[in-house]
């Protein structure tokens, strides 16, 4: 029993001593097994690394580790490069120069002495991708593909096919002439697209990273041919005549609308099978744009071709007109003037001034009244409600209100005759009021 107690006392004494320390277990830094660059463009690249590589040579990322990457020009000191800390095993860097060599280092973010930079890994940015892709000299079986060099490169690689073709599996065609790459044996009335990339080294070795730019595209074109020789004539206040040459096609789609907001895909559209068409339902004093394309199938069309802008003529209806009231058997409301002058207030608004006969017995005079009406784009006339005359009867003005009957009409392209319909009401309790009555007046150009 004494031995047990003694051992317990000795153990207690050692556990309380300040001189006895339990050694700390220090984990080594995570090493880097491999690194490489990918997704290289003319001004960016993705830097990648892995903590382990399996037997199949696959790069395996490591989670739960913070990494430090450093990049710069070849030969730079990684401690003085562009430093990026990241919890992932890849980063994307931008702002690089085209056709320029860079290198990068990477290490795990820990402070032990065995934590050394892994690298350098070198990569070269590509040249800029071509721009301004286009297609010219399109026929039903051929076209010339064009583009603008992105830099000083002198060789390119072209891939083309029907819309939706597999870019990775398509044949590549090399050329040293960006002024146009002719292609033939296309299918008529079909949709095609093409891609182009620059050969940065002017050789098609395909081995060096960055030897090609990224592909530009797709640029789409169709062997469905657009019409030719478009023209506009016979423009009136409400119509315009369009005509074109068929270019060996048979069905077309016309789109039109007001020029300020017009786009072919959102305009008013009509399908025709003749090489001329008169667009109607336009408005006077309005600028329109017209476009046309060929329809070769349910989903195959030519590009839109623009006719240009046309401004329809202004409405006439100004000057002297004879005046008569239609269907009114009572005393003429406006004193049956022989003639009136129609005055232009705006593009569509006009006014006339007439002598008013209502309440003649009160004031023993014939006051005049000027009222406005609008010539609508559809050939109808609108009379504004509650227009005042220029005389006062017991404190209340004489008013006009628009009638409930069908609107009156006029001929937009011929200012010879106009019928105006409205409701007349003196609207005064202190005057000898005439009952409300519908008035139709007819004005005929002198």
UniProtKB/TrEMBL annotation:
Question: Is the keyword Repeat assigned to this protein?
Answer: yes
Q: Which InterPro entries match?
A: ECM_Regulatory_Proteins (IPR050991), FN3_dom (IPR003961), FN3_sf (IPR036116), Ig-like_fold (IPR013783)
Query: Is Transcription set as a keyword in this record?
Result: no
Give all residue intervals belonging to the Fibronectin type-III domain.
30-128, 129-219, 226-315
Provide the alphabetized UniProt keywords.
Answer: Repeat
Name the SUPFAM superfamilies on file: Fibronectin type III
Recorded hits in SMART domains, A to Z, give: FN3
Name of the protein in question: Fibronectin type III domain protein
Q: What is the lineage of its organism?
A: Bacteria, Pseudomonadati, Bacteroidota, Flavobacteriia, Flavobacteriales
């Amino acid at each position: 029993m004494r031995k047990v107690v003694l051992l317990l006392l000795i153990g207690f004494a050692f556990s309380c001593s300040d001189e006895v320390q339990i050694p700390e277990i220090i984990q080594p830094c995570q090493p880097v097994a491999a690194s490489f660059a990918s997704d290289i463009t003319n001004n960016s690249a993705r830097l990648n690394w892995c903590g382990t590589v399996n037997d199949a040579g696959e790069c395996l990322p490591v989670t739960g580790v913070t990494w430090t990457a450093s990049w710069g020009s070849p030969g730079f000191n990684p401690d003085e490069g562009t430093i990026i800390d990241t919890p992932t095993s890849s980063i994307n860097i931008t702002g690089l120069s085209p056709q320029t060599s860079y290198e990068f280092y990477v290490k795990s973010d820990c402070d032990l002495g065995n934590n050394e930079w892994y690298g350098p890994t070198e990569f070269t940015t590509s040249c800029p991708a071509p721009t301004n892709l286009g297609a010219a000299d399109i026929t039903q079986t051929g076209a010339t593909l064009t583009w603008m060099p992105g830099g000083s490169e002198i060789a390119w690689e072209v891939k083309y096919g029907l819309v939706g073709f597999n870019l990775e599996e398509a044949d590549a065609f090399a050329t040293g002439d960006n002024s146009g790459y002719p292609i033939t044996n296309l299918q008529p009335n079909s949709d095609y697209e093409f891609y182009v990339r620059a050969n940065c080294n002017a050789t098609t070795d395909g081995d060096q990273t960055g030897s090609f730019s990224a592909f530009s595209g797709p640029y789409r074109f169709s062997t469905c041919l657009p019409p030719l020789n478009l023209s506009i004539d016979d423009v009136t206040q409400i119509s315009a005549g369009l005509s074109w040459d068929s270019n060996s096609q048979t069905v077309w789609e016309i789109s039109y609308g007001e020029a300020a907001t017009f786009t072919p895909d959102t305009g008013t559209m009509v399908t025709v099978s003749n090489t001329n068409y008169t667009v109607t339902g336009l408005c006077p004093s309005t600028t329109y744009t017209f476009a046309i394309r060929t329809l070769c199938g349910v989903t195959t069309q030519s590009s839109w071709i623009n006719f240009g802008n046309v401004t329809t003529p202004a409405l006439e209806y100004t000057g002297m007109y004879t005046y008569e009231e239609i269907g009114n058997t009572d005393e003429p409301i406006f004193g049956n003037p022989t003639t009136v002058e129609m005055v232009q207030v705006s593009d569509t608004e006009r006014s006339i001034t007439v002598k008013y006969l209502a309440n003649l017995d009160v004031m023993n005079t014939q006051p005049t009244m000027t009222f406005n009406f609008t010539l609508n784009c559809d050939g109808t006339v609108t009379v504004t409600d509650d227009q005042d005359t220029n005389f006062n009867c017991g404190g209340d003005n004489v008013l006009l209100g628009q009638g409930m009957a069908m609107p009156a009409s006029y001929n937009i392209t011929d200012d010879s005759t106009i019928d105006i319909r409205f409701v007349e009401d003196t609207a005064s309790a202190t005057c000898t009021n005439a009952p409300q009555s519908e008035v139709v007046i007819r004005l005929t150009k002198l």
